[in-house]
Design goal:
Elements: H1 6-21, H2 26-54, E1 57-60, E2 71-74, H3 76-99, H4 108-129, H5 133-151, H6 157-188, H7 193-199, H8 205-223, H9 231-235, H10 241-266, H11 273-292, H12 297-318, H13 321-352, H14 363-366, H15 368-382, H16 388-403, H17 406-435, H18 443-448, H19 467-484, H20 486-502, H21 504-511
Antiparallel strand pairs: 1-2
Subcellular location: Cell membrane; Membrane
Membrane topology: Multi-pass membrane protein
InterPro entries: CPA3_Na-H_Antiporter_D, NADH_UbQ_OxRdtase, ND/Mrp_TM
Length: 515
């Protein structure tokens, strides 16, 4: 199905055209970005419908048949996350077009930011659709090349420092990925995911375990799973708001998606499942405890991002249809909610000049629209009924209780504690930034605080373009729609999990009679 290539090719072509145009024709630059991402979203929806009705759709690149050639595979899982990621990137692009966040360098957002953003979007799509481990490596490098530019955009000292940390982490994981590919190819003679699913069954257990652990280590770094998550809270908060939002919403989920694909297709029910459960437990608790201790909205959200990756890993570790369905539902929910919260935080920073809750106050009165836009996804993230965050957690709790093992039941209890602590963290931030009195009432207390850095304690304010909150509201509405459509969405997640656990539909679609 030739449409499968479009979510990858269209952003790359658009990035090339925009680089050729340069800083000229600013409105045309914006139009190209929005139209490209709009078409990608439409194509993703078509692919989702086709995969749901007719099974995995495959296209072979370069005229070489699988498993010799590289193929792109659109099954229920890949197309579902592709649709959500396309919708999110479209909203973030609309935000960045309206925002013009770097007002000192008017040409930079169009000439640099947008092409890098589109390259990253192409890499994300390629990762979701890849049917080959080497192409997955290429996809990671593609999205990372765009993310390097976005993270250091503007060239400030903090962004360069964060970019250096992020780059070192990415290079280390890429080198480890290449080592894993070499081991895998030496052991099996192939890197096709479908053929690996067949050939791993005949390998000695020690070799399978070595390959699985090496690949899991790679994807755990990219997904920011504890204890390999220390780089994230120091990297993401420094980037521009649109970049931070899409990083938080999408990039870690590419790592989670890779773990789901790895464990369900290549190593179903393996001995690593119990290890993944304890890793999920540590990720939940370490992340949420870090979030509780923060006084900056960006860092608080970065730690909650780490924490909630643990829920997804928990669902994968259960190795059941119910557990995988809960993990898939939670991935979809979390992409939209986390992106929304970072975009709203960008609005707060532009409006007040800070994201420190010790320097904020009275925003409920001053900016009620922003207050609502923060409150809704914050409650969704915390799992307040009947929102999608609650429904995703409920699916995972039910799957864990159905498993009945001690690790699973422990994870259920940890998940409930994490949810309560998440609610405490966001409620504390809400109370300080939005609910308590205006900043002018607390200047003296801030000056006496050890957290004060010598900056002018008077928070500046700036007006926002009317269209800016609208772009964020669209994303918040998308997150709320998952609550309204929870029945069909959870059913689709269950069908995707069933297809993953069956494995044969994927293998047959890619290989046919070749094994």
């Amino acid at each position: 199905m030739s449409l499968i290539c479009l979510p990858v090719l269209l952003p790359l072509l658009a990035a090339g055209v925009k680089l050729a145009i340069g800083a000229r024709l600013r409105r045309l630059q914006s139009l190209i970005s929005l139209v490209t991402l709009g078409i990608s979203l439409a194509v993703s929806v078509v692919l989702l419908v086709a995969a749901d009705e007719h099974g995995p759709q495959v296209t072979e690149l370069g005229g070489w048949a699988s498993p010799i050639g590289i193929c792109l595979v659109a099954d229920r899982l890949s197309t579902l996350v592709l649709v959500v990621s396309s919708a999110v990137t479209l909203c973030v692009m609309a935000y960045s077009v309206v925002n013009a966040y770097d007002e000192q360098e008017h040409d930079a957002p169009m000439a640099i930011f947008h092409p890098a953003f589109l390259v990253m979007v192409a890499g994300v799509a390629d990762a979701f659709l890849s049917g080959d481990l080497f192409n997955l490596f290429v996809a990671f490098e593609l999205l990372l090349s765009g993310s390097y530019v976005l993270l250091t955009f503007g060239g400030t000292e903090s962004r360069i420092r964060a970019g250096a940390t992020y780059t070192l982490m990415a290079l280390a994981s890429s080198m480890l990925f290449l080592i894993a590919l070499a081991i895998t190819y030496a052991a099996t003679g192939t890197l096709s995911l479908a053929q690996l699913a067949v050939r791993f069954a005949t390998l000695p257990e020690q070799v399978k375990l070595l390959v699985e652990l090496t690949l899991l280590l790679v994807f755990a770094i990219k997904a920011a799973i504890f204890p390999l998550s220390a780089w994230l809270p120091d990297s993401y908060p420094t980037a521009p708001a649109p970049a931070t939002a899409v990083f938080a919403g999408l990039l870690t989920k590419v790592g989670v998606y890779s773990i789901i694909r790895l464990e369900a297709l290549l190593f179903p029910g393996g001995p690593v499942s119990t290890l993944l459960m304890w890793v999920a437990l540590a990720t939940m608790l370490a992340g949420v405890l870090g979030a509780v201790a923060q006084t900056d909205l960006k860092r608080m959200l970065s730690f909650t991002l780490v924490s909630h990756i643990g829920y997804m890993v928990f669902g994968v570790a259960l190795s059941t249809v119910a557990g995988l369905a809960g993990a898939i539902f939670y991935v979809v929910h979390h992409i939209t909610v986390q992106t929304s919260l970072f975009l709203v935080t960008g609005l707060i920073e532009r409006r007040t000049g800070t994201t420190s809750v010790t320097r904020l106050g009275g925003l409920m009165t001053a900016t009620p629209v922003i207050a609502v836009l923060f409150f809704v996804p914050a409650m969704n993230l915390s799992g307040i009924p009947p929102m999608s965050g609650f429904l995703g957690k409920l699916m995972l709790v039910q799957a864990g209780l159905a498993d009945g093992g001690r690790p699973a039941v422990t994870l259920v209890a940890a998940g409930l504690v994490t949810s309560l602590l998440t609610l405490y963290a966001v409620a504390k931030a809400w109370g300080k930034a939005f609910w308590r009195g205006p900043r002018s009432d607390r200047v003296g207390r801030v000056l006496e605080s050890e957290e004060y850095t010598g900056e002018d304690p008077t928070v500046t304010t700036a007006t926002l373009p009317v269209a800016l909150p609208i772009a964020v509201a669209a994303l918040v509405a998308l997150g709320l729609s998952f609550t309204v459509l929870a029945g069909p969405l959870s059913a689709l997640a269950e069908r995707a999990a069933t297809e993953l656990m069956a494995r044969e539909p994927y293998i047959t679609a890619v290989l046919g009679g070749v094994r």
